[in-house]
Amino acid sequence: MKVATAKKPATGKKSRAVAAPSPSSSDVENATHNTPPPKKSSRAKKPVVASHKITEFFHVRRSTRKTGKQIKMEAHENLRDLVLNKSNEAILEIYLDAVKGRGIKTTVNFSKGDFVLEYIGNMMEYSEAKTVEEAYSHEEVGSYMYFFEHKNKKWCIDATAESPFKGRLINHSVLRPNLKTKVVEIDGRHHLIFVALREIEVGEELLYDYGDRSAETLANNPWLLNT
Q1: Quick check: pTM over 0.70?
Q2: What are the pLDDT digits (tens) for 70-83?
Q3: What residues have CB less than 8 Å from 199, skipping those under 6 apart?
Q4: Distance of CA 148 to the CA centre of its chain
Q5: Among candidate residues 63, 97, 114, 83, the one with its CA nearest the CA of residue 170
Q6: Residue-by-residue DSSP string for 132-201
Q7: b/e per residue, 51-61, with b = 16+ CB within 10 A?
Q8: CA 58, CA 128: separation in Å to the nearest integer?
Q9: In angstroms, rounded to a whole number, what is the distance separating the alpha carbons of residues 26 and 11?
Q10: How far apart are CA 106 and CA 104, in angstroms?
Q11: CA 99, CA 221: separation in Å to the nearest integer?
């Protein structure tokens, strides 16, 4: 009986793992020189700064100066209140003069340009006023009619009838007037007012030039030329 014997493996060349050749120093230097350096930004980065408004550091001073238009509007509103409320009637008093009769004195001071009083009466057109004036001449009543022109049209305020309004009692002076008349428009209507010509002190009589130089008027009122 044959016994099988194990065969020896065939002897062959053993395979070896071949190691990669290590780079030479010259190769390392070449690789180092061939690698491009990292690019540097040409702009320097600025630090981030939070923005602030200048009003956070300084108090804003707003101008309190008024424009010429504002000043004019305020002056007109003030005049409107004085005229429509007739408030100056209370600060003027009636007194009796031996020659001229009744007159008006002030109990307060007025500055040049101040509104003093309104001439209040019945406003009418010129043609109607001349008819009324003619009727007064026949009735022998004192006339308190003030004729004036406004915007190229003639008007008249008839204050002949007795009333509590003191403007009708202001006397005439050609030598020392302290008032002048002026026409102003308020709320679409025109008013005849008295304005201070100069500084007027407490106790002074209020006077203005009537402007009437007719022979008949001067004959009846000779004091018109010397007061």
Answers
A1: no
A2: 888 999 999 999 99
A3: 109, 110, 111, 112
A4: 32
A5: 97
A6: HHHHHHHHT----EEEEEETTEEEEEE--S--S-GGGGPEE-SSS--EEEEEEEETTEEEEEEEESS-B-
A7: eeeeeeeeeee
A8: 68
A9: 42
A10: 7
A11: 10
